[in-house]
Amino acid sequence: MTERKGVIQIIFIVIGLIFIIRLFFIQALDNRYKQEAQQNVLRKIVEYPYRGLIHDRKGKLMVYNVPVFDILVIMREAKIKDTLEFCSDFGITKEELTHILTKIKQDKGFSRKKPMPFLKQVSVKDFAKIEDVLYRHPGFYAQARTIRGYPHATTAHVLGYIGEINKKNLEKQKDKYYEQGDYIGISGIESSYEVQLRGRRGTKYVMRDVHGVEKGAYLNGAFDTVSIPGKNLTSTIDLNLQQYGEKLMEKMIGSVVAIEPSTGEILAFVSSPYYDPNLLTGREFSKNYQVLENDTLKPLFNRPLMAMYPPGSIFKIAQALVGQQLGVLSPSTSYPCNQSWGPKCHAHPSPNNLEGSIQWSCNPYYYMVFRNIIQQGKHPNKFIDSETGYNQWRALIMSFGFGKRLEVDLPNIKSGLIPRPEFYDKWYGKHSWKHSTIRSLDIGQGELLIIPIQMANMAAIIANKGYYYTPHFIKEVDNKPNDNPQIKIKHKTGVDEKYFPIIISGMGKVVQGGTASWTKIQGIDICGKTGTVQNPHGNDHSVFMAFAPKDNPKIAICAFVENAGFGAMTAAPIVTLMIDKYLRDTTSRKPMEEYVLRKDFISKYRKPIP
Amino acid sequence: MRNDDKISKNIDWITVGFYAFFVIIGWLNIFAAVYNPENSQNIFDFSINSGKQIIWIGTSLLIIVLISAIDYKFYSSFSYLIYGIIIFICLVTIFLGTEVKGSKSWFEIGSLRVQPAEFAKFATALALATYLGGINIKFEKLSTKLIAFAILGLPCLLILLQNETGTVLVFSAFILVLYREGLSPWFLIIGVLATALFIFTLLFSQQTIFIGIACLAFIIIAYLLLSLQKKTTRIKNVLYQVAITLVSGALCIGIVISVNFVLNNVLQDHQKKRIQVLIDPELDPKGKAYQVTQSKIAIGSGEILGKGFLKGTQTKFDFVPDQSTDFIFCTIGEEHGWIGATLLIIAYVLFLLRLIYLAERQKERFSRIYGYSVASIIFVHFAINIGMTIGIFPVIGIPLPFISYGGSSLWSFTILLFIFLKLDAHRRQILSH
Questions:
Q1: How far apart are CA B410 and CA B398, in angstroms?
Q2: Which of A12, A34, A209 sits opposite B379 (nearest CB)?
Q3: Domains of chain A, start order
Q4: Cβ-Cβ contacts under 8 Å, B314 against chain A
Q5: Which ipTM value was assigned to this complex?
């Protein structure tokens, strides 16, 4: 019988070995159980940081944080005992409840063990009611968050908005910071300064027992992180000027951009029609966004950065500077206004020298200037000569920031268009075009496309006599100068400083006694240039570019108003009113303000929403 | 020739050492299982299970003293009486017992709750040992076998009526004892085969298994018939073997059908679920499988080295139900990892082998049979209990001897073991009869 003893002993040993091997599989080889255990016990509590505030250049608050609460649910723990009571506690209908629950279950990341969003962005007022009864509903938790608030309801196109990060961005992010449900800046400053504004999320891991009761910090908080609030930004925007600009532009379609020439700081940035940024925050976000999106006047469209227009007569300033630089034009060069080409000039004295040509915006004068730039007679073949001239011209024009993306600190800026010579080669054939082919460029028409901020930047260049700093919106980050290297570069144009005074003098005469003389302000030397952009689709666009004061300029500004006729009629009053506002904080010409406010260039373009 | 009566000299201190080791390990882990880090309790706190376990350990020591003091001949002489009393109590429990978790197996005396079925184990072991150890008993005789099975069957029946299926399963331990005493190994082999078939029945459809059995039988028969070509093989023998193959095949099919029948018609829903979830835990993630899943999570999260004493989270936060009683092994696995669990298993197997060694050195059949019963009963508990916590056996509510929390179980295993140690201490004197 001893072999039977052996059999029994072997059975004992074999069972022991099976256990040890099985345990090795469970404990050593399979990681799944460890994760499951953590999911069981750990609840991750996210501490959302305060997003940085945004102030205007004078310290007025533009963007602040509004506390809201997300109600989260862990389905495994949730028990809805009495649907009626539940719905009344949370202020929802039975249908909404069913809808929310089915949506939660359809969520791709759905897990019975993880907190899923149940109600999002419940206001403090609504939450006060829910908070008192939350204990009655196991499995439901509140999560404090903040959304954005805008006390002055202004500057929407600059500030942008935030929203939940979408799946695409969630997947393509490199530093793996964001998690589903996180807010991220989607447009404007919120987007381009996201990293500074967002701060850092804090996480706390607490242990819970099977009933969901908290049992203290996990590993004494070894993995916990404290949330770090985002940095506050000081904008370059002057809230006062901005709001005034918005008021003046209320019934216009177009842009006003004002820049401090010595720094490139953007003082005002009006894109009209505009919208109240408070619309794109909170629970009504999607609904309001739809309405704005469907508006035929495209209020979401950031016109100063994205609308491309031919610049019209303000471009003559650039032509005059390039002409001088290329040696084909001098202050004493005179041409008669012979109405030989182009749109009719305003009635003005003739012939004019350079200064007069600006003062009166003489079209034939710039026909000649441009002809001399393009065809400098350096090559017997007019076509080859034209190509050489065009390339010289284009290089100088582009040194003004035209035809390329300005590195502003907002996303989605357009570059405009200064055509490459190949562009004309394609149309007309290589060496088959000359000045007369492209002559509409002389007065800023034709194929030229420029965005409003580039026009304002041109005003700044002239004010600076030949250079510019890239226009930007953020002055300080956490009260320290914005360290974006882009805004510290002094961009010099290819035009020598000595060619500017005569131009500035001409621009002074525009307002003193030229095309925009009716907008002159007692006590401020404004230098400006009117423009009327031919518009084949409707009424001409009204443009005015200016800087002031003439000596030591503080503001360079350009207004572009669609379908508003002569530059002097609409854009010039708006610009000069804003200059008055900015430099003296007054409106010394009340009637002109009333005149602007009376004008309406928007209503007839507003189509009913389909 | 009673030359040395002192039990302290003759008792097997190695086994006592194992016993003490398991009891202390159990006590510490019971504390770990119920420990609440928030109000850092004391292990002696009588309001928690680890404190109460001290009472059970203390009373167990009294029991040990008592067992040692009683004359060793008492156990063989009074075994039938003890058996009879326990059978009677079990019978009474069916009618007067308190119902706990669906089984009417608890008997309340004042505030004390005992489970008579626990004590049926040692009583049955004593009775079986007394009967088979009798002078003129020949195990080869059919009548002997029948009486032995009757001694085992009676408590099984009563416990089954108490709805305590788990404990009944423990009585299968006696097959090992009977095997040692001369029962045909076919009982073991058929037992293993039946278990395998049982699991296949759960895993595959009836048809698939039938086809499988038929194919196997066909191959065997084909092989047997092919062997006819050899001249040495006798036709009679081959036919005999074919007949056996066919009968076994039929038996297998019978087992499959009866398993299905038992599953669907005999077992109660909760028992059926417990067996089914073993195969497919996803069947009921929040119900029966929950226990197994959570148990595996707790053990698995311990990894190689464990989380450290009192640092486990799964058991103490109640994710594993019955964490200080039937699922105490989870705490060990979670806090002491694979190393700790493996050491415990090795200790347990060594302990069981020691018991076999002790049993084999008995001169009396009575002592040997009783010794084997002790080893087998503890082994079955060990196998089923740890097997269920690591998900290779259905969840059957039986404790891990000496380690699980509970008075009844600690007492009954102490009695079971120390009667044997008492007998072992006197093994030389028994010769002198």
A1: 12
A2: A12
A3: 43-74+89-235 (3.90.1310.10), 239-605 (3.40.710.10)
A4: 37, 40-41
A5: 0.87
